[in-house]
Amino acid sequence: MQKRALAVHDLSCVGRCSLTVALPILSAAGVNTAVIPTALLSTHTGEFTGYTHLDLSDQLSPIAAHLATLGLHFDAFYSGYLASGAQVGQILSMIDLLCDSETHLFVDPAFADHGRRYSLIDETMPAQMRRLCARANTIVPNLTEAAFLLECPYPGEYCSRALIGEYCRGLLDLGTENVIITDVSFSPEETGIALLSRSGRENEPEFLFRSRFDGVFHGTGDVFASFVLAGLLQELPLKAAAERALDLTHESIEWTLREKQPLRYGVQFERVLKKL
Ligand code: PXL
Questions:
Q1: Whose CA is nearest to atom 12 of ligand 1?
Q2: Nearest-atom index, ligand 1, CA of 12
Q3: Which of 269, 261, 262 shows the shortest CA–CA distance to 245?
Q4: pLDDT tens readout for residues 200-235
């Protein structure tokens, strides 16, 4: 049977993030993907100024209520960037309405990076997002989001293996089954991810690294997360899905740098979709 997912993120018209990443990646993996936009922006808020922003909070409940009448089963619920901390309550109600015990709840917190909340994100977001992470089966915070979720100070770009172990265990304690922390780095040469599952016998995360490219690559958290979920829906085990996602994200960055594309427009993930 074809898998069905529901992706709940903002729609940024230009800049390759959120829905414009999740939808093509899941579709390329053969997944029937429905979307609910949380906000409408002209671009992402990373390296642009003058962008427009429409909070779609008033649409979320009516859309969810209508979709609930269709009786669809979603194999995955995939949330990302939300317009406000207050939207978390609406997302939790949406899960109650549209998901069942077989739905994999996959949450990308998507509210901060490089030690700071994104420009439009309010200060209630970390505490609210913690509630959504508690409900999830899998969460994929970057290092900044992990620190915010745990109310720890941002450790800086390079950190220790021991600290990441603590973060992973702390995040599992919130209630999720699997955690993948991205943007994990111990040295300038390499960057990668840490993953830990509650069901495994391991108490320490596994680390996967790739060589680091110089620069800030917007939307790569969304690209990576979408590739991971694509893998899970193709029945790959978590580690295999994460490893493939890391490789494909790395390759998307490589294409972008090779063609000298401005980094604020995101990475060329389109180049690797056929590998899914
Ligand atoms: O990629 C995360 C993201 C998603 N959506 C919007 C953003 C960002 C990161 O800056 O601004 C609108």
A1: 44
A2: 12
A3: 269
A4: 778 999 999 999 999 999 999 999 999 999 999 999
